[in-house]
Design brief:
By secondary structure, the protein is of the alpha/beta class. The protein has two domains: about 120 residues, Rossmann fold; about 100 residues, OB fold (Dihydrolipoamide Acetyltransferase, E2P) (Beta Barrel), CATH 2.40.50. The chain contains seven helices and 15 strands. A five-stranded parallel beta sheet has the order 2-1-3-4-5, with helices on both faces. The protein has a five-stranded antiparallel beta sheet with strand order 10-9-8-12-11. The model has no long low-confidence stretch (mean pLDDT about 85).
């Protein structure tokens, strides 16, 4: 069952989505709100799998809301405006629904969420996993990557580069996909283009993370830094 919340500053828009949710067996509605600030609290308290989110809202836009929750839930954007589509996909939303939203289009978006959550469950069901298999540039070739060998992972347009010492392995996938395949207790995304192993962090200098075996360090993004600092604080001696 996918637990979801609906966030929209217009009640009639919430009513339509709520009606659709109640017709969809995979979904369970846990909360609705017209206040985006209250919605931030709901994400923390209810821990939903999915947020149906309007873009144009007072106080906090949908785009800013996504940055604030930092991948705590899947997001389907709902809006009457198409000009935000490119920016929203850069933030890895699952889908982008234009109002007025029809039920068939709504169900199509939900199926995308179902697929992503199923794939995520398969990839991370074993947090103790010590390796992954990736498809390399060579067609049909699968390569085993031992997690303890990874120095960092860098996004490169349609590829990601897995860096291990002097070896660079190019994999045709997205940063989002590779992030979901890695155990969250061992790796953290610190920038839209970088994922690093937590146990290789040796220090932080401003927006630069120092890593063992990476002399130049790795740049952090502002939206990713709070989660990184939470990990560091948990390991600090008070």
């Amino acid at each position: 069952m996918i637990h979801c919340i609906i966030v929209d500053d217009e009640q009639h828009a919430i009513d339509i989505l709520e009606h659709y949710v109640r017709q969809t067996p995979q979904l369970q509605l846990v909360a609705t709100t017209t206040n985006p600030m209250e919605a931030l609290k709901l994400v923390t308290e209810k821990k939903p799998d999915l947020v149906f989110l309007d873009i144009q809202m007072p106080e906090l836009s949908g785009i800013d809301f996504i940055r604030a929750i930092r991948d705590q839930a899947k997001v389907i954007l709902t809006t009457a405006y198409s000009e935000f589509a490119i920016e929203s996909y850069e933030l890895d939303v699952v889908d982008y629904l234009l109002k007025p939203i029809r039920l068939p289009r709504f169900l199509q978006a939900v199926q995308k969420v179902v697929k992503e959550l199923e794939e995520h469950e398969v990839h991370v069901s074993d947090e103790a996993a010590d390796h992954i298999f990736v498809k390399t540039e060579s067609k049909g070739k699968l390569l085993r990557i031992d997690l303890n060998e990874i120095d960092y992972i860098e996004g490169m347009k349609n590829y990601v580069a897995i860096m291990r010492g002097n070896q660079k392995t190019l994999v045709y996938t997205s940063m989002k996909d590779i992030e979901e395949r890695l155990p969250g207790k061992k790796f953290i995304r610190v920038h839209k283009s970088f994922i690093i192993p937590i146990d290789r962090i040796t220090g932080i200098e401003g927006n630069l993370v120092r890593l063992r075996n990476v002399p130049s360090g790795i740049l952090t993004g502002e939206s990713y830094k709070p989660a990184l600092m939470d990990i560091i604080k948990n390991k600090m001696i008070q």
